[in-house]
Predict the 3D structure of the following.
Amino acid sequence: MVSRLRLPKDGGDASRDRGQLILIGSVAVAFIVLGMVVVANAAITTDTVSRGGLDEQHTAATFDREVERNTRSLLLYVNHGSVYSTEPSLRDSAAANYTTYGDLLAESYGTTRPAAVNLTYHGANATGTRVVQRDDGAFDDAPMSSKRSVGWFVLNLNTSSFEGDDDLTVVVTDANDDEARLHIQKNRSNGQTVDALDVRTDLPGTANDTPKQQCIAADDRVLLDVLDGRSLGGSCTFNATQALDGPYEISFEDGDDVRGTYSIVHDGGPSSNPACEATRVTKVNPCSSPAVWEADISASYLSDGVQYRTRQNVTIYDTAR
């Protein structure tokens, strides 16, 4: 029987979240393809006994890197694939999916080499908060009214809701009270409306500003990664938080007439938004869902030549942006 990763159902139409999940998947794949290393604290305990050759030691080292990288990708999937009313429901989902991943990895190693591997998820050393607007709505709230470390900020904008001179402004205020202002408006070329949004930024120091950039839509949607300053598919790039120093406070201006969704993950507990309900019947926008911010895991690789055990903390989000 093939094991499958599973998330709790939230009762919604999956198609509404397709764009958001596509971005999550693409980001996770990008980390794997580009070989970006998971941000990991020094191992709490590491025990390696080697009697094998260099090839087997290399295999154990590869196993360690694979576990770190995929732990991050898996817990991104857990954090963003559903909403959770309580921290215990998040913990149960993370543990169940991590157990499935461990079983699949053990099966893979067991069929390709004489080695036994084992993974254990001990829980979250630190829990963050995901502020999420799950269905298209106005941008008329301050989703983060206090300064926090931010690891994720994605806008999923409905281009058909932008009319005339509608201009959504995203304001990110840093620890020094410097502001980045991200202006988003319907693109118009030679008087003809095209399926795209124009994005420009005003940052501290005019040299950091980004002139108007055209962000191409797909199916009436534009997805913007505000922290990395890019759109899904790379049709546009822009400076957003690069000139700022975290932690951040986030607010919206002039967003009453445009529609879209968003997801922000910051450290610590909820700042002001109510908890997300597990079903959409009692849905509120925006709402707060707990998220794994730092995971406590252990891993072992045992063979005739190598005995490797480690326990470490893995930070899920990169806040050095």
User: Anything to note?
Assistant: Residues 11-46 have pLDDT under 50 and may be disordered.
